[in-house]
Amino acid sequence: MEEQPSLISSKLFLKNRQVEVALSRAVLTWKEIKESKNRIPLIPQADLSHAVPVSEIVAVHKPEDEDQPQMRRTQKKNKESSQFVPYAFTVSYVRRMKQHQWQCSDVTFLCDSRGLCEQWIQVTNEQLSLLTNRPKSLLVYINPCGGKQRGKRIYEQKVAPVFRQAGIFTDVIVTERANHARDHLRTEANLDKYDGVVCVGGDGMFSEILHGLVIRTQRDHDVDQNRPDAELVSCLSRIGIIPAGSTDCICFATVGTNDPVTSALHIIVGDNQPMDVCSVHHKDSFLRYSVSLLGYGFYGDLLADSEKKRWLGPARYDLSGFKTFFCHNFYEGTVCFLPAEDSVGHPRDKLQCKSGCRICQHKLESKEKHKEMPEEKEKAGKDSNKGWNVVRGEFISVNSACMSCSCPRCPKGLSPSAHLADGTTDLILIKKCSRMNFFRHLFRHTNKQDQFDHSFVEVHRVKKFHFQPKVDSPEDQSYHPERTACGPKFSNPKISNYSTAVSSWTCDGEILHHAAIQVSVQHQLIRLFARGIEEQQ
Ligand SMILES: CCCCCCCCCCCCC/C=C/[C@@H](O)[C@H](COP(=O)(O)O)NC(=O)CCCCC
Ligand SMILES: Nc1ncnc2c1ncn2[C@@H]1O[C@H](COP(=O)(O)OP(=O)(O)O)[C@@H](O)[C@H]1O
Ligand SMILES: [Ca+2]
C-alpha cells in the first residue's frame, strides 16, 4: 500500500502501554513505543505494529463502558504512574479470523486531553463519511421459519447491534407468509428510501428478494420478462444475505462462510459483488430466476421429497438425499446448449472465481463494448442459430450451476470453477450409470478428486440451454402429478416406468412446475453486499 501523509498522529495509551497512533486517508496504524532503560530515546517496535484500512473501520465512538472495572483499573494504574489519562475513544474494525470469518474488534485508545480525544473522533468520522459506497439505510426482511427457525434471534442478537454501531438505519419486516417479501418489494416498498435490501434466511428467502427486485425493475423499465431474449435491466439496489436457512449456498459461495456477523460486516463496509442470474422460461412464458442450482433428476427429486419433511429442518436434505440416491432414477430427454466463448475458461480449468476475479472483470468490459455495438451487427448475431450443441439421452441428473454452489455440505461446490459474474453457467450432465458409479461421482464432491472426470459425466460452460423431456411433463400437459418417493405417479397407467418418465426442476430450492425449459444467463443482473472469496492470508 502506498504510504500517505498522516491526517492526525499522536502518542496515546493502549491499556497501559504507550503507542504511536496515526491516521491517513487509507489506513489507521498504531505501534507500541518501548522506552529504553535511561528513558531516552523512545524506540517504536515494528513487530508490535497494527494497521487497519480505513475502509474496514466500522465506527469510532466514545467507549460505552467508561465506568467498567477494566477501564477504571487502567486509568488508576496510569494515574499512579503519574500518567493519568481520563479520555478515551474506541475504534471498531473488521478483523479477519480463520476460514473467511470476520469479527468486529474494538481497540480503545486513551488520550490525556478531551480536545485530543474529540479531534481523533472527528477526523476519523470525516474519513468514514467519505466512503460513499457504504449503506446508510437498509430494508431488512426476516424469514422466521427458515432453517432452524432462528432468523429473528440471529438478526436481533448478532446483526442489529453491529448495524446500530455503524449508524445504519433499518426498517425491519418479519415475514408472515411465503412470498410476503417478494410481493412487498414488487409493489409497495419505497426503494428510494434505502441503500440496499437485506434478507435473513436461506436461498429460498434470497430468491424472494431476487424476484421482488428484478420483477419490479423490469416493470419500471417496461421490459417484457416473458420474452426469453429480452435485454433485462440490472437492479440498482444491492442485496445483503444474513444466513439463517438450511443450505445458505448463495451466502457461502459469495462470502466464503455462513456466519451472520461476517455478512453484516460485508454489508457495513459496502461491498459490491455483481452476480449473474439465469432466467427460466417455458415456451414464451417466464417461470423463475435462479442464481445457484437449477437441477433436474437427482436434485429435483431430492428437493421435491425434502419439501414434505420441512419439519426436520436442514436434516431433511440428508434423509431425502439417501432416499433419492437409492431410488436411482434416470430420465430421458434432450439438452441443447450454446457454449460460452473460450475467454471465460472451462469448468475443469481449476481457476477459481476469487475476489476481484479477472475473468468476471474481463467479461464486464466486453459487456460495455457489446452495448456500443451497432444494432444491425447485434441483430445478426442474435438471429443465427449457429453454435448450438445437442445431447440426447438418459440422464440421472441435469444440473446448471451459475456459481460454484459451494456450501458447508460441499465446500468446493457443485462446479468448483464456476464464476459469479462471467455471464455463463456450468451445465453438468450425469448420464445413466450404475448406482456405484453415481456414488463415486457424488463422493468426489467431498474430496480433492475431479467430480467431472468420469465417462458418464459431461460438463460445459454455456450462455443458454434448453431441456426437453422425452415424455411431456404432466404440467406441460396441464395436469398435476402426485409425486411418490421414487418419482411422479402417473394417472396414465401406460407410463409406469419411472426411469423414463419426467422429473421436476429445483430452482434455488424451489420446485418448477414445468420440465421443458429454456435458460438464459443474464450477465450481472444483480449486485450483492459481498466481495467473492478472498485469498487466505
Ligand atoms: C456421499 C456424499 C455425497 C455428498 C454430495 C454433496 C453434493 C451437494 C451439492 C450441494 C449443492 C447445493 C446447491 C444449493 C442449493 C440451494 O439453493 C438449495 C436451497 O437452499 P436453502 O433454501 O438454503 O435450503 N438447497 C438444495 O437444493 C439442497 C441440496 C442438498 C443436497 C444434498
Ligand atoms: N413467514 C413465512 N412463513 C412461511 N414460509 C415463509 C415465510 N417467509 C418466507 N417463507 C418461505 O420459506 C421458504 C424457505 O425459506 P428459506 O429462508 O430459504 O429457508 P430454508 O433454507 O430452510 O429452505 C421459502 O420458500 C420462503 O418463500
Ligand atoms: Ca456464472
Automatic annotation (TrEMBL):
<dbReference type="GO" id="GO:0006672">
    <property type="term" value="P:ceramide metabolic process"/>
</dbReference>
<dbReference type="Pfam" id="PF19280">
    <property type="entry name" value="CERK_C"/>
</dbReference>
<dbReference type="GO" id="GO:0016020">
    <property type="term" value="C:membrane"/>
</dbReference>
<dbReference type="InterPro" id="IPR045363">
    <property type="entry name" value="CERK_C"/>
</dbReference>
<dbReference type="GO" id="GO:0001729">
    <property type="term" value="F:ceramide kinase activity"/>
</dbReference>
<dbReference type="InterPro" id="IPR057465">
    <property type="entry name" value="CERK_PH"/>
</dbReference>
<dbReference type="InterPro" id="IPR016064">
    <property type="entry name" value="NAD/diacylglycerol_kinase_sf"/>
</dbReference>
<keyword id="KW-0418">Kinase</keyword>
<dbReference type="InterPro" id="IPR001206">
    <property type="entry name" value="Diacylglycerol_kinase_cat_dom"/>
</dbReference>
<keyword id="KW-0808">Transferase</keyword>
<dbReference type="Pfam" id="PF25382">
    <property type="entry name" value="PH_CERK"/>
</dbReference>
<protein>
    <submittedName>
        <fullName>Ceramide kinase</fullName>
    </submittedName>
</protein>
<feature type="domain" description="DAGKc">
    <location>
        <begin position="133"/>
        <end position="284"/>
    </location>
</feature>
<dbReference type="InterPro" id="IPR050187">
    <property type="entry name" value="Lipid_Phosphate_FormReg"/>
</dbReference>
<dbReference type="Pfam" id="PF00781">
    <property type="entry name" value="DAGK_cat"/>
</dbReference>
<dbReference type="InterPro" id="IPR017438">
    <property type="entry name" value="ATP-NAD_kinase_N"/>
</dbReference>
